[in-house]
Design brief:
The protein has nine helices and 20 strands. By secondary structure, it is α+β, with helices and mostly antiparallel strands. The protein has two domains: about 15-250, Rossmann fold (3-Layer(aba) Sandwich), CATH 3.40.50.300; about 255-265 and about 320-430, OB fold (Dihydrolipoamide Acetyltransferase, E2P). It has a six-stranded mixed β-sheet, with helices on both faces. Helix 5 links the parallel strand 7 (about 170-175) and strand 8. Helix 3 (about 120-135) packs across helix 4. The longest helix is centred in the middle third of the chain and has 18 residues, at about 180-200. It starts with 18 loop residues before the first strand and ends with a strand. It comes from Pseudaestuariivita atlantica. Keywords: ATP-binding, Cell inner membrane, Cell membrane, Membrane, Nucleotide-binding, Translocase, Transport. GO terms for molecular function: ATP binding; ATP hydrolysis activity; transmembrane transporter activity. InterPro entries: AAA+_ATPase, ABC_SmlMolc_Importer, ABC_transporter-like_ATP-bd, ABC_transporter-like_CS, Mo/tungstate-bd_C_term_dom, P-loop_NTPase, Transp-assoc_OB_typ2.
């Protein structure tokens, strides 16, 4: 079983990818479905291709399976060019949303089907089917037909059948789309457990952000045949590299504006205090690198270019920082974790609703704005407040429901303050 806490082959310059897409383009007539795409996927990864309908994620998977051929570029699997390997000769299995189980066969016979087609001996087939039934916790259902088991159990039968031939790679095309939300959430963790147990490389195609963020070791966010960003789920969420990724993944508040560098006030005599010159502190021009070296074990290294996707914004805390002018007459947004060289440039400040505090009084925070509650989305464990500012901007702020609903602090039309720290959001260039 892979230790998820230590499994980061994409950060190892000596690691060899299992799958390589190199400058792959796929056209259907005049339409370009995949546009000069390059990406590496490593052995034992649970890799998610995430994007809206029509972004090219299914086309990418079909080329990997051998159902489509690239117009240009190369796809290698285990170091071998797949151009001349037909679909039935590739060490790849595919699991569909519909499961495609044979209704006239029992669960056991469905799982054994591929092995029988290969001509494996009866003893091997029986042992392998028993192993798959145990892995997917279906031992009691081997004699039943598909219509005699639940949707979640049928999903596990399809998974067991896909894994029975021990493929190097398993492709999952919206595998949980037919399940209700509660069952889908439970099955996500079952998929993760099975993938870790078998060590098989999984590539899942989905438009469900929560599903991708839950199961995947890395997520590739796609848009119009290109990869916008590929990274771990936490970095995709916390450090999106564009407004598209920020807006596509979860809830977000976006403030387009202009960045303005702010310098700290100089000491009265124009010299730095003696304490600031202590050799125990890194020089000012090394502070960013020093912090990154300290935080990299927690946040991980930045993208190394292997993915073919742009890097996310680097965290470079500075004592001076930026102010973002985002609306006429409004206080600027104060930021201290922005990338360098943004002074005077057009930017977008992005902040998640859960990073924003809601209070009756002005908070003691670098960013504080007063507004009116115009809507409340009650989700049980959390409530999302839609707060309209005097500028007309509507900001979503999310709070945990630690009180019962009758004791909730705010309601419709209340005047409230919202606020956040100077490191709560990210500054995006595109």
């Amino acid at each position: 079983m892979v230790n998820a806490a230590e499994f980061e082959p994409w950060s190892d310059p000596d690691a060899v990818p299992l799958i390589r897409f190199q400058n792959v383009t796929k056209r259907f007539g005049e339409f370009t479905a995949i546009d000069d795409l390059t990406i590496d996927i490593y052995e034992q990864e649970f890799f998610a291709l995430l994007g809206p309908s029509g972004c090219g994620k299914t086309t990418l998977m079909r080329m990997l399976a051998g159902f489509e051929a690239p117009t240009s570029g190369t796809i290698t699997l285990g170091g071998e060019d797949m151009a001349n390997r037909p679909a039935n000769k590739r060490p790849v299995n595919m699991m569909f949303q519909s499961y495609a189980l044979f209704p006239h066969l029992t669960v056991r016979d469905n799982i054994a089907f591929g092995l029988k087609r290969e001509g494996r001996d009866a003893a091997f087939i029986a042992a392998r089917v028993d192993e798959m039934l145990k892995l997917t916790r279906l031992e009691r259902f081997g004699a039943r037909k598909p219509h005699q088991i639940s949707g979640g159990q049928r999903q596990r039968v399809a998974l067991a059948r896909s894994l029975a031939k021990a493929p190097k790679l398993l492709l999952l095309d919206e595998p949980l789309g037919a399940l209700d939300k509660k069952l889908r959430q439970d099955t996500q963790f079952e998929l993760m457990e099975i993938q870790e147990t078998t060590g098989t490389t999984f590539v899942i195609v989905t438009h469900d952000q929560e599903e991708a963020m839950t199961v995947a070791s890395r997520v590739a966010v796609m848009n119009e045949g290109r990869i916008e960003q590929v990274d771990t789920p936490d970095r995709i969420y916390e450090l999106p590299n564009s407004t598209y990724v920020a807006d596509f993944i979860g809830e977000i508040n976006l403030f387009p504006g202009t960045a303005r560098r702010t310098d700290p006030p100089a000491p009265p005599d124009g010299t730095a205090p003696a304490a600031a010159k202590s050799e125990s502190q890194p020089p000012a021009n090394e502070a960013a690198g020093w912090l990154v070296s300290r935080l990299s074990p927690i946040f991980g290294e930045g993208a190394d270019g292997k993915s073919g996707a742009p890097d996310g914004p680097a965290l470079l805390p500075r004592p001076d920082g930026l102010e973002i002018d985002w609306a006429e007459g409004a206080d600027p947004i104060v930021v201290s974790n922005a990338t360098e060289g943004l002074d005077g440039g057009a930017v977008t400040f992005a902040i998640r609703p859960e990073k924003i505090a809601v209070s009756a009084d002005r908070p003691d925070l670098p960013n504080a704005f007063q507004g009116k509650v115009i809507d409340i989305a009650y989700l049980g464990n959390v409530s999302t407040y839609h707060v309209e500012l005097p500028t007309g901007q509507i900001v979503k702020a999310q709070t945990a429901n630690t009180r019962r609903i009758s004791a909730r602090a705010f309601t419709w039309d209340d005047t409230v303050w919202i606020g956040w720290t100077d490191t709560a959001g990210v500054v995006l260039l595109r």
